[in-house]
Amino acid sequence: MVLAAEQEYLSLIAPELPEILVRRYRLLRKIYYSAPIGRRSLASYFKMGESVLRKETDLLREQGLIAVETRGICLTSSGESLVTAITPYIKSFLGLTVLEEKLSGLLKVKRVIVVTGDLENDEVVLLEMGRAAAKILRKCLKPHMVLAVSGGTSCAAVSHMLSESGGPSGITVVPARGGLGEDVDYQANTIAARVAQKLKANYRLLHLPDSLSQDALDMLLREKKIKEILDLINTARILVHGIGTAEEMARRRGAGTEEMKRMNEEGAVGEVFGFFFNTRGEIVDSIPSLGLYLEDLGNRVDNVIVVAGGRKKAEAIIAVVGNHPRDLLVTDEAAAKRILELYGHKEGETIYPNSNGIKI
Amino acid sequence: MVLAAEQEYLSLIAPELPEILVRRYRLLRKIYYSAPIGRRSLASYFKMGESVLRKETDLLREQGLIAVETRGICLTSSGESLVTAITPYIKSFLGLTVLEEKLSGLLKVKRVIVVTGDLENDEVVLLEMGRAAAKILRKCLKPHMVLAVSGGTSCAAVSHMLSESGGPSGITVVPARGGLGEDVDYQANTIAARVAQKLKANYRLLHLPDSLSQDALDMLLREKKIKEILDLINTARILVHGIGTAEEMARRRGAGTEEMKRMNEEGAVGEVFGFFFNTRGEIVDSIPSLGLYLEDLGNRVDNVIVVAGGRKKAEAIIAVVGNHPRDLLVTDEAAAKRILELYGHKEGETIYPNSNGIKI
DNA sequence: ATCATGCGGGTCTTTTTTTATCCCATTTTT
DNA sequence: AAAAATGGGATAAAAAAAGACCCGCATGAT
User: Fold this and answer.
1) Fewest beta carbons within 10 Å, which of A126, A232, A250, A324?
2) What's the pTM?
3) What CATH architecture applies to the domain A4-85?
4) Could you tell me the residue ranges of all domains in chain B?
């Protein structure tokens, strides 16, 4: 890792460096995840002119980092090793390493991983977060553990980025919540199944709809199958979950004005598998179906891995993570900086000023 | 110090970085030595357009590294600390650190210091070499030592860059050669006196002309004063000397065709206080005057510090340094690379390819 | 004290580079 | 076989850079 002093020297004498570095890094990272990809797609992805991008790709090709073929642009082997090798350096250069430490202290999370970029304008950031979380998740796994995974795009990213190399024996993957009326790709069940497949593990599914009347719920809970899986979920030792924002929640529960109003009154800003948190981290509401069973799931398990990024999620992250013992938070640069901002910190000496708002 | 791997990564992903870095560094260094200096002077010094330079200075001013005032451009305090702090980093970045080690092995010198740049197109390099040598020289000094210094621009630079902070007590500075028909600033006597002044030490001068008939010499040697100082020179424990090239020698001794021819036949390529060396390091000729007295001076003293730079001097350096035990060689990038070339080495992985031939 | 020199900084014109589109032949994918 | 997407190339418009000025002012020599 480079010393902090040297970064400052470099940025002083070559202030254009951070921008160049971030631009090229994002480009390589996108190619890494989307290869083979054409110049036009890249240009529109990064919202930059075709010729500007072409100049970049020409340069990277001359450097032997990418290969442009008729099917599209791919990383060469040296480009691939560069992009992985340079990641920690870029993080350190952008001050993300110190940012991680700061957040770890502020949020009282054992470890924070901050990924370069902004999830909201670079989809690849989500995958990168997923990869980071997947890497840590693998380390936490021990034989015969039960692993609970939540729904949402973040957890889906984790499942996608898990390598298909199997895992310890006897692992069982369960969803940490029932089905919501969403895209099947982001449902907890689907994600649990995919994680299990990647880990070559067993899995059980929870076939419960989102909104359910109390009567119907009571009836379903008498079903042995359902009871069984709920009990299994409660024995989970590892929990991976994303975080929903107030905005999402409102949209999902049907944008009923009444509902919105209640939400506002309650001060709910974040949601985790059916529980709604206010900024102080208190549960102010819940989807009734599973409340009884899963309420303190987050407190019972050994390892809680939280994956959430994007500036909008900063408040929700503080609400959920900042007030409960969590082991790992994987987030992105945009959310991390916003969280720091919300905690009233100014972006100071150690955080590189230019790294914010750089456009590729 | 930055790791070699990181330099390679940076150069791969941002190949324009080395050029920027070197350009700005040279600019700052020049200002450091020549402040206050105007834009026009700087532009003509670096042989670049005025507007190009203006953009650079504008940038450096925005970075707070320089202050442009009506009397000229100066370094700010942060610019000053940057330029000293960044020097080892630049060296490492340009591969000069590994170059030093290579040369140390090849030339069998205990330590080699390679200064960024080319003495032949950047006068500041000479000063920088002088500063490096002066720094080491100070460390070598112990009380009551005799220090012998040679003539030439390089030794003059050392004398100028010595700080005026005094030195150990009882030091005596003597010239390692007589007067040559040169500019007084570069004569050994002048330099010895200046070094003594900086060190607040004593000094003795040797008033012997360059070319002297044997008879005249014999007579002078009978002079007690002369004998005394020659004996003193022979008790020197530290020797600082530059190196003359074949070209210089010929010019100085009068470009007589006969002389030139003899030189060529002898294969003399380097000269040190009156002794001429061929590429194998053998003495092939000498200025008669002092031959008897000083022949093996270089072998008798404790520390020999050699200061010589510029591509043209590479051969002479190899001749003089490569075949005799020396403690320290201070040279520049151009000479160092040329020496490596002459030794038949290709510029390989570790030496940064672009660092050669960069123009500011 | 006065003068001449050289400074920074601004301005203007010319030249070069960059940018933004478009088109085409080819390959890949559907 | 058809459709979509690819890299490469060409061209015109736009922007930026470069170069060559001039001006008021401070400094240092006279």
Assistant:
1) A232
2) 0.85
3) Orthogonal Bundle (1.10)
4) 4-85, 95-342
